[in-house]
Design brief:
Distance between the termini: 33 Å
Helix content: over 70%
Radius of gyration: 18 Å
Structural class: mainly alpha
Number of strands: 0
Number of domains: 1
Length: 112
């Protein structure tokens, strides 16, 4: 259940490493607009950090969905409020949209 929380620590560590190493890309990661070409691993640590944070969000949403479904199937569906159904819908939308967002960030910002 706590795998999503455990993935945030490596994400923060990779982000910190990328801050200390420095990516050397100026104000943007897009290569034609960046001032210094990036040859180090700072950008790679930053990319890995973003992907770990996205994976953590997906796992947290899956955990929330399974918690809601387990309460629905245990005869509590008549007592579940509308806000729980809204959380369920939001979690499903997050799971379906987050991989697309991660791919868009990787392709547009990092050109990799």
């Amino acid at each position: 259940n706590a795998l999503s929380a455990w993935l945030m620590l490596p994400s923060v560590v990779c982000f910190g490493i990328s801050l200390f190493i420095g990516s050397g890309v100026g104000w943007t990661f897009y290569p034609p607009l960046s001032s210094i070409p990036y040859t180090g691993v700072g950008v790679d640590y930053l990319m890995f950090s973003l992907h770990l944070a996205g994976l953590s969000s997906i796992l947290g949403s899956l955990n929330f969905i399974t918690t809601i479904f387990s309460s629905i199937f245990s005869q509590l569906s008549s007592r579940i409020s509308i806000i729980i159904w809204a959380y369920l819908f939001t979690s499903i939308m997050l799971i379906s949209s987050l991989p697309v967002l991660a791919a868009a960030i990787t392709m547009l910002l990092f050109d990799r």
